[in-house]
Design brief:
The protein is built from 10 helices and 4 strands. The protein has 244 residues and is of the alpha+beta class. It folds into 2 domains: 76 residues, Glutaredoxin; 143 residues, Up-down Bundle (Glutathione S-transferase Yfyf (Class Pi), Chain A, domain 2). A 4-stranded mixed β-sheet has the order 2-1-3-4, covered by helices on one side. Helix 1 packs parallel to helix 3 and helix 1 packs across helix 10. The longest helix is centred in the middle third of the chain and has 38 residues. The structure holds glutathione.
Length: 244
């Protein structure tokens, strides 16, 4: 039995839902509202995920956290439809894309979307003092410190520009790679494509136009079309907020 604790619009949750759909695995949904109800900070959830974030997978009583680790776990455990290259070098390169998705893309997209998306959403729901109290509850010391700093000082234009440049570099890397092969880790669709795809949708949703200018990066535009036309992508994105 597989249970996924996830939030409908979270990029990391979407990675896992795409993987589950690619493999045709049945799963039970446990929606964790990370925005209005802050269910990710409830003690019972933090027992499962000590970082207080989504997603979390529970499989036959075993708890797995971190979206990149979850998607590899799913691929290892349900290998019938494989999502990793056969060749071990290509597999290593695939893992590098997973790292890039987390360490370069997720990290910087959070900086860029702070003023645009995060602040208006939070200010509509909570006063500044309430937001401070929420952040203090975050079980991750790193996250607590950086988010409290952002709450006090905001994200400067300089920080936003720096993060945007790092994201532009990833998009250039993607364009170069797709000049060599149809998919990020070679000739077949893999976890590398799954790990990056939800961020491309996020760039589009946030109107980050220079990143998704497909005239400038045509190979990436074609790749992005191919990903969106997959049934797994459509299934993952069809999951909507159950609380509205
Ligand atoms: N490295 C983690 C990151 C998880 C993460 O940051 N999840 C976000 C949603 S994409 C979250 O739960 N945010 C809630 C919060 O930080 O309060 C992973 O890949 O699973």
């Amino acid at each position: 039995m597989l249970t996924l604790y996830h939030f409908w619009s979270s990029t990391c949750s979407r990675k896992v839902r795409i993987t589950l759909a690619e493999k045709g695995i049945e799963w039970e949904s446990h929606h964790i509202d990370i925005v209005t109800k802050l269910e990710n900070l409830e003690p019972d959830y933090v027992k499962l995920n000590p970082n207080g974030v989504v997603p979390t997978l529970v499989h036959d009583g075993n708890v797995i956290i971190e979206s990149n680790i979850i998607i590899e776990y799913l691929d290892d455990t349900f290998p019938e439809i494989g999502l990793k290259p056969e060749d071990t070098y290509q597999r290593a390169l695939m893992r590098l894309w997973l790292d890039t998705a987390e360490l370069q893309v997720h990290k910087n997209v959070n900086v860029v979307s702070y003023n645009k998306r995060h602040v208006p959403r939070m200010n509509k729901l909570f006063s500044k003092e309430e937001q401070r109290k929420i952040l203090v509850r975050s079980p991750s010391a790193d996250k607590r410190a950086s988010m409290l700093r952002r709450l006090e000082r905001g994200v400067s234009e300089e920080e936003e520009n720096f993060a945007n440049q790092r994201l532009g570099e990833v998009m250039d890397k993607i364009e170069n790679k797709l000049g060599e092969s149809d998919w990020l880790a070679g000739d077949s669709f893999s976890l590398a494509d799954i790990a990056i795809a939800p961020f491309i949708e996020r760039f589009e949703a946030n109107g980050m136009e220079t990143l998704v200018d497909w005239d400038k990066r045509p190979k990436s535009g074609e790749w992005w079309e191919r990903i969106q036309s997959r049934e797994s992508y459509q299934t993952a994105y069809a999951f909507q907020n159950p609380n509205v």
